[in-house]
Structures are given as C-alpha cells and as structure tokens.
Write a structure and sequence with these properties.
This protein is an alpha+beta fold. It has four helices and six strands; from the N terminus they run H-H-E-E-H-E-E-H-E-E.
C-alpha cells in the first residue's frame, strides 16, 4: 500500500467503524483500478457463504473509496455520500470477499468539470465481486460529491 491507500483505509476504519470489524482493507490501487478485500469469517452467513449485506457493504465502500482516491489524486477537497446503490447477486461467495472498481477517466471527465463549475456532481460507478474466478455480484452505485467549500 502507498500513503494514499493507507490514508483511505485509516479513514474507513476511523470514520466507518464497521469496516474494521468486517476486515475490509485496500488490497491494491493502480491504473485506476481499486481492489478491496474482506475476510469471509466476519462476514459469513448461515450457509457458510458471504452475507449478502456484507457483499453490498464491501462493494459500496469500494466505490466510495474509488471516488475518494480520484478526488485526492486531483487535489479536490470534497465530501462523498452514496446517493443510490443496487446489487445483483449472481452466485454465492464461499471465499474472502474481493471487490474491484475500475475508473474510466474519460467517461467521468464531465462530472469533474461539473464539480468544479457547480460545486457538486454525481459519479456512477460499478464494482464487481468474484468467486472462483467468476462474477458473483455486481454493484452499481451513484456517489454524490460536494466541494467542502461550496455553499
């Protein structure tokens, strides 16, 4: 991990305490791809697989984390909330949870222009969770961003 990803993980664990209890941590970030992991054990359900709510939470945090990283790398001081989110559960996850979010800089460029111009924007992101090399869940989140100095 680098300084920025360590700062992200510390932010999660300090400001969203359940993320620490869930074992959520940044696995990697590079080339606009964020990978987040969480151990299966604290997120297990009665079937011995990952609890659906944990899958949602890890994916939502992954999208939030990607938004946070993109803002930080651009030197933008802003607040982030998830405005809406939905998830499709394709198959059970019987291993550690791994959530991946890819950021398309060209696709999201207009949103950042709007953020600078209007002080707010929405960033739609998709996060994928795999199990045994196949997609197990797909999360779609819409993240509302507001400049901290905006009125």
């Amino acid at each position: 991990m680098n300084t920025l990803t360590t700062q992200l993980q510390n932010t999660w664990h300090g400001e969203i305490p359940i993320s620490k209890e869930m074992g959520v941590h940044v696995a990697s970030f590079g080339n606009d791809v964020l990978t987040v992991r969480a151990a299966l054990a604290p997120n297990i359900n009665v079937h011995g697989t990952a609890f659906a709510g944990s899958l949602y939470a890890v994916a939502a945090l992954t999208g939030w984390g990607m938004t946070w990283l993109q803002l930080k790398t651009r030197g933008i001081d802003a607040s982030i909330v998830i405005a809406s989110g939905s998830i499709d559960y394709v198959k059970p996850v019987a291993e550690d949870i791994v959530s991946v979010c890819e950021f398309d800089t060209a696709f999201h460029a207009p949103a950042f222009e709007q953020l600078i111009k209007d002080g707010k924007c929405r960033l739609p992101l998709v996060c994928s969770i795999a199990a045994k090399g196949e997609e197990a869940a797909r999360f779609r989140g819409d993240y509302a961003v507001r400049l901290n100095n905006a009125r």
